[in-house]
Design a protein that fits this description.
The complex is a heterodimer of chains A (80) and B (255).
Chain A (H helix, E strand, L loop, with lengths): L3 H13 L20 H15 L5 H6 L3 H14 L1
Helix pairs in contact in A: 1-2
Chain B lengths: L12 E5 L4 H12 L3 E6 L3 H14 L3 E5 L5 H14 L3 E6 L14 H22 L3 E10 L12 H21 L4 E8 L13 H11 L8 H12 L10 E4 L8
Parallel strand pairs in B: 1-2, 1-4, 2-3, 4-5, 5-6, 6-7
């Protein structure tokens, strides 16, 4: 099974058409021009679908960068 | 009422949320040229913010960029702290920051509405409340809305609903805050070619259609929107309160 980071990278690709190789734990919004406030909710919607989890407003606030996205998703997956 | 040699000039400090890209950036630039000291808030795009800062420094424009998450109390407090630190009359809040999920009703969930309303409506409400003690006696609140507040657009249910709520909130604020010398209005741009369209399905086709339908035969520019924003926040508009000004080249008057 793909790692969480790999699946996050896949979601970045489907949302922003980014090269999956470019998404690392150190990736931040400034690295991806389309990752603005509008892009952030589109990404969140894609992550919900990919991981079959529910993300609330607090989760979106916490997901400031890829490292935090992976952390939030790991917590959600552990609780399932 | 302060006397102005030019009734369209601005003064004091103005906060522009979402003020480093697109319409917000144009407003930040125009307001600083009109005499305001601008605090241009952003959250994610450091490059765009730094680019605006560089232009401001080059042209000697009083624009401060401020990274803050408006949906959090900490981010709202950062904005308030910056206003206080400016040590000038606080004369305006322009809410350009916006987000939204563009999906049909079949794919839309309550959480999508929560995400959209958190920035588009709730953050604005919290900021107004937090900044109330700071507003100067002759100041303005301006919310940037969209046609989706009053018209049904494809995949726009969540954003349109939030903009409708935003407009209703501004009308009520206009009535409640007028006795304190604070006017509140809405500015509704029509289709404007900015990066926001990257997130909207069928953007190219919809922009082409917007051009075709526009009586002026083109899209409205960010500069035109910014000039209208300046007017609404200036002394020249001191009799305008609780209104929504549409800047769309006349598109919405067509049957």
């Amino acid at each position: 099974m793909d790692s969480v980071l790999a699946r996050v990278s896949k979601t970045f690709h489907s949302t922003f058409e980014t090269d999956p190789q470019l998404i690392t734990l150190d990736t931040v919004p400034g690295d991806i021009p389309a990752w603005d406030s509008m892009g952030h909710v589109s990404l969140a919607s894609g992550l919900e679908q990919e991981f079959n989890v529910n993300l609330d407003v607090d989760d979106l606030m916490a997901m400031e960068n890829v490292r935090e996205i992976v952390r939030v998703l790991n917590e959600k997956l552990e609780r399932k | 009422m302060p006397q102005f040699s030019n009734p369209f000039e601005l003064r004091g400090t103005v906060v522009v949320t979402g003020g480093t890209r697109g319409i917000g950036r144009a407003i930040s630039s125009q307001f600083s040229r009109a005499g305001a000291r601008v605090i241009a808030n952003y959250l994610r795009d450091d490059k765009a913010a730094l680019a605006l800062k560089a232009v401001a420094e080059q042209e000697g424009l009083p624009i401060e960029i401020l990274r803050a998450d408006l949906t959090t109390p900490a981010g709202q407090q950062q904005i308030a702290a910056s206003v206080i630190a400016a040590n000038e009359p606080f004369c305006g809040l322009v809410h350009c920051a916006a987000t939204g999920v563009h999906k049909s009703i079949d794919s839309l969930t309550g959480r999508h509405l929560d995400w959209t309303f958190a920035l588009n409506v709730r953050a604005f409400f919290e900021l107004v409340k937090l900044l109330l003690p700071q507003f100067d006696r002759h100041s303005s609140v301006l919310a940037i809305s969209s046609m989706g507040a009053t018209h049904a657009l494809p995949h726009y249910t969540a954003v349109g609903a939030s903009k409708g709520a935003l407009e209703a909130l501004v009308r009520h604020l206009a009535a409640e805050l007028a006795p304190r010398g604070i006017r509140a209005n809405v500015l509704t741009p029509g289709a404007v070619a900015t990066d926001v369209w990257k997130a909207i399905p069928d953007a190219e086709a919809r922009l082409a259609e917007a051009v075709r339908r526009s009586p002026i035969g083109r899209l409205v520019t960010v500069e035109e929107v910014a000039l209208c924003a300046q007017f609404l926040c200036s002394a020249a508009a001191s009799g305008i309160n609780g209104q929504a000004l549409m800047v769309d080249g006349g598109t919405t008057i067509l049957a």
